[in-house]
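Bumping my old thread because nobody answered last time. Still need a sequence for this structure:
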């Protein structure tokens, strides 16, 4: 669920934040972790949030790419933004760009201007820009974030593309099975009505199911539609989605891969911020929202250990935020002083490992799913036609 948070931070004045959280206390703790003093927190209605998101969806990746090209060409920041605003044809995007430019003219830094705009820039994006303002390397920061986002989108595309065929196969198989049970079987039940006890047990059960559907079809259809509506509503509730994720985490094979994916995204984001010059403790606070809620407590303890003087590798190992490969790479990063680069290498290693696992899983799961659907549909057909085979045998 999304929450609107009004907060203060230093001398920046009141700020409106839109945070994804499980409840009001979680939203408040997220804002406090980012250095804000919370004034008020209230939930945002789901339909209103979707409407606002559709109206103000800002293409920050293409914006970053175009801004990077103009900065590399030698234009000043305000001049580059004014160029982007002049060429923009969409009224909502042009308005947001003008808001950013006006905020810059008032003397505010770019990170503050982005946060105050109506574009809902990702906190990680704003943190990357804020880190670059200390080093003066805005072009490098934009380039790094575009690369980061492209890599994250690539991982998501791999997961989605690997899931499409099994979902389609299961959907089509389910529809065919439902059609046979709801439409075909009831008609066969009328044909065999007079055969009664001559039918095999499984065939009789199947025919009784057909008669039941014929007599209670309307009620069953209403119940199915009600169940679908309840499922859609439940999936729209963050608490229910969290419960599903928790159940998936309890499955050893799937939970281990979800944990690995979380760590890969965590290390890639953290590495990007460290390479941009952000202090490690601040960077850890910024990327905490990327972790599963159950892992945020472990990250908080790891941050406390680092503040107490422990090394990053020791803190991560102690609070179970590493893998054997990640731990060794972190130690190498500490020896060489290239911690940001090593964290990105950790993420790349585990993303490639995830991709190989997804490929093996789909190659095994797809034929098993096809066999299951084939046996299910074939079993229904055999049970429907089995009495006809017996009748034909008795006639001979």
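Sorry it took so long. Here it is:
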């Amino acid at each position: 669920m999304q929450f609107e948070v009004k907060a203060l931070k230093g001398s920046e004045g009141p700020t409106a934040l839109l945070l994804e959280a499980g409840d009001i206390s979680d939203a408040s703790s997220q804002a406090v972790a980012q250095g804000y003093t919370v004034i008020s927190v209230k939930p945002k209605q789901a339909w209103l949030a979707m409407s606002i998101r559709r109206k103000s969806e800002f293409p920050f990746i293409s914006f970053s790419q175009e801004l990077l090209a103009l900065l590399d060409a030698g234009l000043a920041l305000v001049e580059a933004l004014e160029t982007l605003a002049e060429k923009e044809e969409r009224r909502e995007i042009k308005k947001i760009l003008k808001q950013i430019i006006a905020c810059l003219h008032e003397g505010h830094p770019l990170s503050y201007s982005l946060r105050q705009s109506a574009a809902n820039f990702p906190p990680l994006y704003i943190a990357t820009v804020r880190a670059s303002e200390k080093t003066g390397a805005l072009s490098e920061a934009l380039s790094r974030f575009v690369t980061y986002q492209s890599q994250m989108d690539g991982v998501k595309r791999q997961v989605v593309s690997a899931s499409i065929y099994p979902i389609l196969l299961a959907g089509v198989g389910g529809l065919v099975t439902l059609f046979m049970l709801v439409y075909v079987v009831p008609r066969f039940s009328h044909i065999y009505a007079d055969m009664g006890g001559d039918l095999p047990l499984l065939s009789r059960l199947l025919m009784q199911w057909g008669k039941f559907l014929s007599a209670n079809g309307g009620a069953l259809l209403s119940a199915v539609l009600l169940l679908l509506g309840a499922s859609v509503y439940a999936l729209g509730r963050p608490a229910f989605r969290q419960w599903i994720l928790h159940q998936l985490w309890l499955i050893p094979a799937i939970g281990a891969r979800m944990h690995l994916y979380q760590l890969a995204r965590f290390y890639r984001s953290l590495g990007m911020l460290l390479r941009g010059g952000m202090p490690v403790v601040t960077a850890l606070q910024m990327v905490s929202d990327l972790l599963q809620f159950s892992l945020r407590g472990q990250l908080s303890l790891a941050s406390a250990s680092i503040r107490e003087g422990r090394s990053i590798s020791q803190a991560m190992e102690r609070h179970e935020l590493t893998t054997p490969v990640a731990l060794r790479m972190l130690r190498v990063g500490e020896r060489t002083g290239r911690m940001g680069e090593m964290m990105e290498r950790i993420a790349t290693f585990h993303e490639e490992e995830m991709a190989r696992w997804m490929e093996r899983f789909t190659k095994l799961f797809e034929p098993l799913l096809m066999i299951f659907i084939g046996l299910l549909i074939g079993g229904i057909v055999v049970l429907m036609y089995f009495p006809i085979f017996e009748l034909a045998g008795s006639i001979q």
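Residues 339-395 form the longest helix (57 residues). Let me know if any region looks off to you.
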